[in-house]
């Protein structure tokens, strides 16, 4: 085989290796794009944040803690009794008796999506 044909064969072989390397690199980039792209989509999903607030409430005529719970309790509490217990703790109540005109601190949650 002549020198010229050997050089052509070597160039062709080098070109084939470059094309193979380029194809492998493109496949890797494509796979990484799928993996990272999927994670970017997950990261952009909105997340629900719960913020606890307190409101001062003046007890109305014939109000009970159950009436207040019915109005202000959110789904963040397991039960009405848990919510009433928290109101009692916050306001240092020893039982469930409240009186007209009494001021109570009432907890509630606000939900924001970010």
In short:
The protein has 114 residues and is an alpha+beta fold.
Quick tags:
single chain, 3 helices, rod-shaped, 53% helix, alpha+beta, Membrane-bound Lytic Murein Transglycosylase D, Chain A, two-stranded antiparallel sheet, 114 residues
Description:
This protein is of the alpha+beta class and 114 residues long. It folds into 2 domains: 1-45; 48-113, Membrane-bound Lytic Murein Transglycosylase D, Chain A (Roll), CATH 3.10.350. Helices cover 53% and strands 19% of the residues. The protein has helices at 3-43, 65-72, 80-90, and strands at residues 48-58, 103-113. It has a two-stranded antiparallel sheet with strand order 1-2. Helix 2 crosses helix 3 (80-90). The protein is rod-shaped, with a radius of gyration of 35 Å. The mean pLDDT is 86.
What is the top-level CATH class of the largest domain? Alpha Beta
Number of beta-strand segments:
2
Q: List SSEs in N-to-C order.
A: HEHHE
Mean pLDDT: 86
Global structural class: alpha+beta
Number of helices: 3
> Can you tell me the CATH architecture of the largest domain?
Roll
**Uncertain spans:** none
Computed CA radius of gyration, to the nearest angstrom: 35 Å
Helicity level, as a percent range? 40-55%
Major β-sheet strand ordering:
1-2
Shape: rod-shaped
Lay out the secondary structure.
Elements: H1 3-43, E1 48-58, H2 65-72, H3 80-90, E2 103-113
Antiparallel strand pairs: 1-2
């Amino acid at each position: 085989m002549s020198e010229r044909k050997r050089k052509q064969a070597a160039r062709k072989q080098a070109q084939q290796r470059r094309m193979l390397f380029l194809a492998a690199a493109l496949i890797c980039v494509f796979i990484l794009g799928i993996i990272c792209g999927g994670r970017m989509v997950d990261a952009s999903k909105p997340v629900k944040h719960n913020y606890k607030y307190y409101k001062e409430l003046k007890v109305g005529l014939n109000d009970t803690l159950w009436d207040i719970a019915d109005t202000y309790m959110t789904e963040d509490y397991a039960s009405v009794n848990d919510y009433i217990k928290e109101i009692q703790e916050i306001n240092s109540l020893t039982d469930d008796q409240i009186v007209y005109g009494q001021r109570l601190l009432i907890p509630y949650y606000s939900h924001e999506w970010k």
